[in-house]
Amino acid sequence: MSQETVDLNCIGWDVHIVSAISFQENIRLALLRNGVIRAVTRVLPFIISQNTSIANRPLAARCIVNASAFLNTRLEDLDGVPLVIEAIDSDVIPSLMKCEPLLPYADHATARDQPITLLGSVLARYTIYRSVLRPTLLSMDAVEASRMELNLIKDGQLHQAWIRLKEVVAERRRLLGHDIADGYHIQSCQNHKCGRAGEIGSFKRCGGCLHTFYCSKACQRDDWRDGKHHLYCNGVHRRYLRTDGQMAGLRQKDIRFLDQVIIAELRKHTARINAHHLKTNVVEFNFVGQNVDTIFDSRRVKPAPFGIKCSCEKFAHEMWNRMIEKAKEAPEPLILARTYIPGGMSRKVLLRALPLRCVLEDVSRTYYREDKNSLTFPSHLSLAYTCCGRNSLEKETTTGKKRLL
Question: Angle at which helices 157-173 and 130-145 pack, to 10 degrees?
Fold first, then answer.
């Protein structure tokens, strides 16, 4: 790319080779650590900026397709969010908006779909994170200001992907601010014998799995010994070791924002929830696909509608079942929400319990009238789980030292 004469064939093959060797895990980790996302993303604006002759446009299209295909796969690596932010900061959105003239020169329909999938699906679903939504808004506002949308084929596939991204972002833009100013966002002690709640950021995080929080060292020790946390923690920590320490927990601001997204989704179904007249309303959201899948499963017809692929998820599912049983003791109607969110190679699930009135009442401050001492389970619960990134239910070893706070 730094040569005076641009060799499009060479660039296309370079990206293809990087894609091929990245299937080897140790090579992929080294590439990701050394900025391969940024390098491949910058291929897009570089190719688009070239005054390519008609004869060379198939080669230019191949460069665009290969780069987009690589990003579609590798943005879903590690924990996803840092890599998506890296791509957005490298101007992936305006670059995709400008690539449409080259797409007809791609080899086949599957190749032409790669930039479309990246814009309308992969990037869109990660806007559930506040840390992704913020730079996405800045990038999209710049695109809107330059009126790039007018250059797209109306109702074409790229235009439809752009509209889909705009709709998702517009809906979540309205939630910004609520996650900081509204009420009392909680996190719960994950020792199931405790259930204490505290303001987000007030509990200590387990240094092994980076996703489990405790109100005290005593609760951590008890959960390690009697709550089977050592099995879950060792499984997740093996992912940390396998990826040479490239593992991140959920940010506090992201957790606050995820609360608002979940409540906003629940409020779309208030009529249905009201019609059920149930004390415990069980709802499951899947934000991992292109669209948000919602399942009302209060009768437990499908105990694991989105599947259990590893022992870490099995552990989280057992906690979910305990929540459902414990919810019977609640003094008022509850909503239990299990939410699957994109998280790269490590699938993530949020478990939430909150009073039904917090959803049905049209109030902006979810916990505004709550006494902090009452924000405990079964009335309230807020837990987050990740997984080891494997797709098999491996037998977990019980060996391993406890990792202190």
Answer: 120
**Residue 4 burial class via C-beta count within 10 angstroms: exposed 0-12, middle 13-18, buried 19 and up:** exposed
Inter-residue contact 136 to 88 (CB < 8 Å): yes
Token pair belonging to 86: 């890296």
Q: Is the Cβ–Cβ distance between 388 and 238 less than 8 Å?
A: yes
Backbone φ, ψ for residue 208 (5° rounding):
-90, -55
CA distance 76 to 333: 37
Whole-angstrom CA distances from 284 to 11, 385, 402 are 44, 15, 32
Name the token pair of 238.
């093996």
Instruction: Provide the 3-class DSSP secondary structure of residue 355.
Output: strand
Instruction: With CA atoms as reference, report the closest residue to 188 among 385, 355, 404.
Output: 385
In tens, the pLDDT along 195-206 reads: 788 777 788 888
Please state whether beta strands 334-341 and 293-296 pair in parallel, antiparallel, or not at all (unpaired). unpaired
**What are residue 188's DSSP bridge partners?**
197
Per-residue DSSP letter, 199? E
Ranges of each domain in the chain: 8-174, 179-385
Q: What is the 3-state secondary structure (H, E, C) of 118-148?
A: HHHHHHHHHHHCHHHHHHHHHHHHHHHHCCH
**Alpha-helical regions (H) of 270-310:** 270-276
Q: What is the dihedral of CA 113, 86, 170, 76, to 10 degrees?
A: 50
- 45 by DSSP, 3-state: which? helix
pLDDT in tens, 208-251: 888 888 999 999 999 888 877 888 888 888 888 888 888 888 88
Euclidean distance between CA atoms 352 and 279, whole angstroms? 16
Least Cα distance to 64 among 45, 87, 44, 50 occurs for 44
The pTM score is 0.88
Partners of 350 in the beta sheet?
A: 339, 384
Q: State how far the Cα of 377 lies from the Cα of 188, in Å rounded to an integer.
A: 8
Q: What are the two backbone dihedrals, phi and then psi, of residue 382, each rounded to the nearest 5 degrees?
A: -145, 105
Q: How is residue 247 annotated by DSSP?
A: -
Closest CA to 257 of 178, 366, 168, 348: 178
